[in-house]
Design goal:
about 270 residues, four-stranded mixed sheet, alpha/beta, six-stranded mixed sheet, 2-enoyl-CoA Hydratase, Chain A, domain 1, single chain
Length: about 270
Amino acid sequence: MYRFFSIFFILAESQRQYAIMAYIHLIKKDNYGIIQMDRDKANPMNHEFIAELRIALKNFMEDDSIKGAIINGKENFFSAGLDLPELYGYDENQFAKFWRNFMDLVCDLVAFDKPLIASINGHSPAGGCIVAIGCDYRVMAEGNFKIGLNEIPIGIVVPRGVFDIYSYWIGRKTAYQYLMEGKLYSPAHAQEIGLVDEVVPADKVLEKAEAKLKQYLQYEQNGWRLTKRQLKHDQLKSISSISDFEMKSFLQQWWSEPVRTIVGNFVENLKKKG
């Protein structure tokens, strides 16, 4: 079931008012902002989390004093991806609404024309990887972490638009082969194929992300943003043009008996570990 959340507003004389949210915190530093994801241990994405992340992007996009942003995770996790235990309990209407909102989030990421950096503090599979590839630059922590799109082994359909973003960074052949195998990569391998741009010690990830953002902000911003819009045009067109047939196919697959069994077993195993 959905847990409803309230949004309150900070009254401040010297800066724009930002929403106080349950899972996403907005931090303003000089002329840029940090979107701090903060839900449970691994930032699993449920309906509220997605809604708040979209609000955060909208706030920073509309604030002229914010010239760029960083999306930051938690220790050992950028995001574990979709909150499968919660999603497994959604009814058909709830899940359909969640998935449409998630795809709208991907559109928001691609359409964010200010510099956007992913500060990947640890694991970033599936939905976490999708958020990361929606950014312009990715800094990942070194260590025993994994990143990639591993939906196929669970039976979840990967939208064509997500593949187009994924392949933009690592090439269509590699993206196709790795996606169809549900392959996850170590930080070093991810850097080798172009999925991440820097691999640094965990305590330096945010620092390096801020350094890259400050580099981008040294350039004339109107030209930078116009160029980004042009380069991202095809991605945005692809991700925003998902047909009703594609959506219907995705939802039918989610509710199919094999997928319900796989996800159900996954949820039960998580409960036993927890």
